[in-house]
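Saturday, quiet lab. Running sequence design on the structure tokens for the scaffold JK sent over.
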């Protein structure tokens, strides 16, 4: 079984998922291709990409977390929203990787040799030139435009990609069925719910795709998740062992059958609950 698995969404849109549970999106236009995120970067993601296209590639990050920007060093130029620029600092990226490794060593020691293997792979890397884009940026691929909409919360510079012609939002980690909103920079759950309700006013979209899975959610999930966040309370939440480094992480969950997932959840810190 390969480390990367490629899923075709349509003739010009692909999802490449890593064995570690995160994926990147590849959008093809007439002139260029756009790569949304670069994954953890343990293996050479340029290989599965080269099997799909040889068009010139624009590379961007939906946000700066290490499982989305860890492969940036495989490319010469990468775009990111300026508010997440500090996260590309190599020390911060390493800190995030160390947290993940520490978690695996403690909870799934059987996987430690596999992680060591991944961590020592050698292939051509660069120090990419990092460029920033504004709050509503249009990536013009020739005959196809993918818009990046700034949607802070999961991180200060998180963006959602909008493919208007297909009616699809590619949310990165800004929306999914188990959001992480426990960081020191995370908003309160009700602030995030308000932002989601505004996003839900967008017209012309039918579905949402996420970074951590091949599933597709109907557009109405945005409103549903906003309601869900308002139901989270301290009493109904449980402590988790997610490594955050700063403060304890709680989880609130409800059954998720109606969206074809085992559960809908939010991970947050007490401080993100608000008053
Ligand atoms: Zn993330």
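Result came back. Writing it out in full:
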């Amino acid at each position: 079984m390969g480390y990367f698995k490629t899923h075709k969404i349509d003739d010009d849109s692909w999802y490449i998922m890593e064995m570690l549970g995160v994926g990147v999106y590849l959008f093809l236009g007439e002139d260029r291709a756009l790569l949304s995120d670069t994954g953890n970067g343990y293996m050479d993601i340029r290989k599965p990409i080269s099997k799909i296209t040889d068009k010139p590639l624009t590379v961007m990050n939906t946000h700066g977390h290490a499982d989305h920007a860890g492969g940036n060093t495989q490319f010469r130029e990468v775009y990111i929203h300026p508010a997440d620029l500090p996260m590309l600092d190599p020390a911060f990226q390493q800190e995030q990787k160390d947290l993940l490794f520490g978690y695996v060593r403690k909870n799934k020691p059987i996987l430690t040799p596999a992680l060591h293997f991944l961590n020592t792979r050698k292939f051509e890397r660069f120090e990419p030139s990092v460029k920033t884009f504004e709050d509503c940026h249009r990536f013009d691929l020739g005959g196809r435009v993918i818009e990046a909409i700034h949607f802070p919360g999961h991180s200060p510079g998180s963006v959602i990609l909008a493919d208007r012609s297909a009616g699809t939002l590619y949310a990165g980690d800004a929306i999914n069925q188990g959001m992480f909103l426990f960081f020191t920079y995370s908003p309160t759950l009700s602030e995030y719910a308000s932002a989601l309700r505004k996003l839900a006013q967008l017209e012309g979209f039918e579905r949402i795709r996420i970074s951590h899975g091949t599933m597709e959610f109907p557009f109405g999930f945005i409103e549903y998740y906003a309601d869900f966040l308002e139901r989270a309370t301290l009493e109904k939440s449980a402590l988790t062992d997610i490594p955050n480094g700063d403060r304890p992480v709680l989880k609130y969950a409800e059954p998720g059958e109606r969206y074809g997932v085992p559960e809908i959840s939010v991970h947050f810190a007490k401080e993100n609950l608000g008053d």
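Notes for JK: The helical segments are 46-52, 66-69, 90-107, 112-119, 189-199, 221-231. The mean pLDDT is 94. Ask whether to fix the surface positions before the next round.
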